[in-house]
Amino acid sequence: PARSTVVVGTGTGARPVMIGPDTFTLIAGPCAVESLAQTLEAAEMAKAAGATMLRGGAFKPRAAPREFQGLGKVGLHILAEVREVTGLPVVTEVIDPGDVDLVSGYADMLQVGARNMQNTALLQAVGRAGKPVLLKRGIQATVDEWLMAAEYVAQRGNLDIVLCERGIRTFETATATTLDIAAVPVVQRLSHLPVIVDPSHSAGRRDLVLPLSRAAIAVGADGILVDVHPDPEAALCDGPQALAGADVRELASTLRRLIPAA
Ligand code: PEP
Which residues does the UniProt record annotate as the domain DAHP synthetase I/KDSA (predicted)? Predict the structure, then answer.
């Protein structure tokens, strides 16, 4: 099918960004919004790496209830402030159908996380919200199930959907999940939607973020979603996968080298 382009960031004062076949989009930022200073610093790092969009979770769906669950509404305020300073459109996760209106009031793009890929009430709610949607693949979802989840969003009138491959559960324990790199061209043949890759959450290890980013570019992904943090050791969420310092500079030079327009 003819490939679609999704435009993110209109109407919020951000610099609009295209995600699709004619460009390669780097979305970067902290796993979780922890403070204004941390998010601003991460956004500057993201920009330095060539990112045109900011990621950051205000609502964090964590494996254990004792782990940091995100700043919630305060985090959304911070993201909007950082957008104003940097001009970067913001993608952030919504985990509760009842929060879709709230999150839509701040975000440029609504993220549905891996854990919620088959939460049909959430998919329908984001489908009605009138914002572009980043739909991550569930770690136990087949490509068909993933595409059916996208249909739930589309059925509510929203075709601005970007799919994100973020690894699936296999017998392998060396990485957090196994990046299904083949899913990128598979889905691009089955669907018109843009497909990006999350090398950070799929591997759970910062030393693999660069190699997997190169793989994503090689296989024809429309972009990548990468965690950066000013102080990964102190991160409240997923520090071991966050890039900082020299790693961010290497990501920037890799993208400049491999993507002509970047
Ligand atoms: C995230 O991107 O913040 C996240 C929680 O990822 P996933 O839903 O893929 O686990």
Answer: 16-255
